[in-house]
Amino acid sequence: MGPVYWWMILGMAIATYLPRMIPLTFLDGKELPPIVSGVLRNIPYAVLGALIFPAILHIQDHMLFGIIGAITAFILSFIGLDVMFVVIGTIAVLAVYSLF
After folding, report:
1. Cβ contact 52:73 at 8 Å
2. Residue 31: DSSP 8-state
3. Which residue ranges in the chain fall short of pLDDT 50?
4. CA atoms of 74 and 69, how far apart (whole Å)
5. Residues in CB range of 11: below 8 A, 6 or more apart
6. CA distance 3 to 8
7. pTM of the model
């Protein structure tokens, strides 16, 4: 592996580490305002929606498969489950649906 790849890996490591280290360093022991906490709490659901929605529009063979997945993900996130449970629950529902 050439030196370009090592520099690229080092750059990606720094780019990944800094956004995690800075809040831990500067916000240690401080309480965030409720509105900021609410926004940060909803970011995973927004990202999940941004990833899923375009895929729903591009399903050509089984459009109903995408619609059922979207409805399941929406319901599970609406009732307040964690993102991981929303993903696992949606996969489970679609796995059962694909058996029929």
Report:
1. yes
2. P
3. none
4. 9
5. none
6. 9
7. 0.53
